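Can't paste images in this forum, so I'm doing it all in text. The chain is below; anyone willing to post the predicted structure tokens underneath?
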Amino acid sequence: MEALLHYAWQHRFFLPEPMRTTDGLPLEIIDTGLHNHDAGPDFFNAKIKIDGQLWVGNVEIHDRSSDWYRHGHETDENYNNVVLHVVRMADCPVETASGRTLPQWEMAVPERLTAQFQALCTDPHYPACRETIGNIEPFAQKSWLCALTVERLEQKTERIAHWLRETAGDWERTFFITLARAFGFGKNAEAFQLWAATLDPQHMAKHRDDAFQIEALFFGQAGLLDPALLQPTQRDEHFCRLEKEYHFLRQKFIISPISPTEWRFLRLRPQNFPHVRLAQMAALYVSGHLSFAAVRECEALDELRKHFIFNTLPYWETHYSFGEKVGKSAKTIDNPKTTIELKNADSIDSDTGKEEKNGTTTSAAEKRIRPNEKRRATCLSRTSIDLLFINAVIPTLFAYARAHHDDERAERALEWLEQLRPESNATVRAWQEAGITARHAADSQALLQLKQHYCDRKDCLRCRFGAYFMQAAPR
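Text version of the structure:
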């Protein structure tokens, strides 16, 4: 309810009857002031007249007068400059820390406005403002989406800035951690971030030319090379070799892995298993393309996309975890010499970088394929690469540009978001049904920001769409 009082005060949506303080003195509101979203009084530099006397100062708003004491304002000197206490119900007098008794005003909000607000807060369907979305001018829609896109990038910049501080200003390591988090694709984002933070760039660099050693280091630090975690049938030759190699590396570098319990497997498709994603990160690192210095010099998305073309070790063409081979449920295609199995994913040709929509492609890798052996694509799909761009590459580029006051790179980051296809998820589909279609990834990111930071929190009164819904009600 307090949020509605803030909204009504800011936009002067209160009943126009003659206003008087709780002491019966005439009240005139000249300027409601500047809304403060941080600590301190709710509105700064308001202008009011009480009994003909002009007052310039701050305004505090509560549901009840007694909330003043519940929040401890009577002992906080930051509230000494409050000139008016606005409440829905005045249930007691209030004083500042300086001992001054504050004038109070019971603000009456129109019933229709209250009903609109309650409708937004209690509607079980999403989005709650869907009935009025179609009436909003396209320019106003686009303007709010653009603001939300930048807001989302700014929030991601804060996380990147945190890791930049943790790594003593190392942009390469910060990029690696950010990219690793994105490789978690949601459920394992935190685990990948935790894992990446344990890896020392100098340790990795010493073995960059050896794909097997890098894989051993990556899987070992992920806590996935503990024989006690696997059934005897799962401890195949590849696992045993990795486990032995990691034992050597662990003693060499004096390192410790994260707990294997950090990883989530429930309701994951096999291609999203941590084992598969770790193998892909290892291959990407060994390819030499996992460099932020190279990424930030790219001037076009097509150029950037080439950095994400790689081949994993052949083992992962037939496995999605140790000792677990690709099953019969996968989609198979016929080849004159072999049967190649693609596991629930579109593929990228590792030589051309072109998306293979029907999965039929012949490459040098097939020479290693045994007749009739079921195999899976281990490269990243175009959709997965786009998600890595959206959640890691572009935010890091944007953060770097902001840190170096590089407007050109910041603009490039935003342009790349507008060149990528929109994400496909329940949130984007819900808004499409409501009348807003995401044109590109910048829009889909804006809609995710809207849901997570406004809709889910029922913070509709700070949302431009919610404000339109409220203003559609007659005063």
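Residues 173-292+314-382 form one domain. The CA atoms of residues 5 and 61 lie 7 Å apart.
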